[in-house]
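Entry 12.
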Amino acid sequence: MPNSTRFFPNSWSDRSIHHQLGATICRAQGLYGAVAYWTIGPEVLHAQLVALLSQPESFCCVDLHLPTDVDKLHAFHRLGARQLFVQCHEVRQRGERHLHRHLLHTKLLLFDLPLGQAEVWVGSYNFTKQALLGANREASVVLTTTQGSDLYQQVRAYLEAIRADAHCHRFDPARLDDYKKLQGLPDDEPEPECLVLPVAWHSARMPTLARQTLLLLGQAPDERRALAQADAANTPVVLRAYDLSTGLTTHYGVVIQNQGAIDRNVPSSYDLSFGQRHLAVRPPETLPYVAPQLHPLPPAELREFGFWASLLVLDKLPTSLHLLPRERDDTAHWQRDWEATEEVRAHLEAAPEAFNQQLTLPFGERPPAPDIPRAVLPDLPAEQWLSWAMESSVRYRRKAKLGKLDVFGAAFWDEREPAPPTAFEELDNQFSPYNLRYLAAAYEQPLRQRYYEPASIAQQLALDGDRVPRLKKLLEKYRLRY
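Predicted 3D structure (tokens):
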């Protein structure tokens, strides 16, 4: 039994419990809780709340569905509140498109206090400003007890069971976008798209690519069109440079100064003078190789290509840059939980029959009818009570048969098959330390005598085409994330 009981709010006109809850949080040594919604930031409640949720034994479970603000949960997590959990579970009723039954609706907090004391906060406040500051009409009962009492043990076990549920996941800041996807929210800021141009180069011959001008020469008409479209649309271009000396990958910004098609039958398309600059020659299905130019290419040499592009390489981009596939992976989705679905359906089918069986009990043992206040029952004739109870049973049956219910839980990417490797991953694997010496020769040998300065570091090797990275499509669009 509780040692004492308090009711909040204190009065009809003073509905905020901010001060009272803050006082308990300040004294508490442990917290175990479950609330339906969380929309407050760390500034709303006492800073001790972060400290409580940093302790290994403490925890609080929150339903993922709106209006829960996962950015606010993230703010607590950044400050050290690592014991936050999100319940990713819902029931949907077919035929009721907009009816979602979210399964965590508890408002229950259990605080460990000094000297073996404890407080149990029951209903109806969520962790929202509207509730805690008094905008809503809420009510809560606070029970003071000891940590060894039956009440404490029952409440603690109930909250532990919520946390142990298979659909209750520890809050993971890396899944922030996934949580928002499950909530049905759009992306906060769509990541910009860029055109990625991978190249190979040798830092032993060129200390840096930054602030260098490259002359890209290639054959494929679709690659020329991609450059022309990027130039016309001012699409950002990122140079992804694979260093044949170190194996490192570096990113640079690129400006397309100008570009054009080369037609063997149109002399004006190749009778051009570009001056001294670095060449980036694109062989069929392999990376363009960037190196100092031996001499300006005469028109007869340019005539052999299908397009040219003059590219100004800008400064090195931050290492925090990530290139993501243009099409977003389905990293999180709602997945039907067949076992839970069958359990819920069986319960709903049995519930109306169980209610009918109650009608055979003696009048004094019958539970109150759902639509009849308990205080009215003693004065009702048995016939009238039975009639109203039967009507309630019929209505209950109708509601239960509106459509079959399905239970869904969250499925995240790491619970499914791994994603297939991207072209970059395949290239990265090829540029491994044991393969670098071979790749340097493979890139330089076919081109150096014709287009580039002689290279003493490249040795004559028997070249195996299977060891050279293949790249059928040179230019791909990706999303940029810093």
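Annotation: The first strand starts at residue 4 and ends at 8. The longest helix spans residues 338-358.
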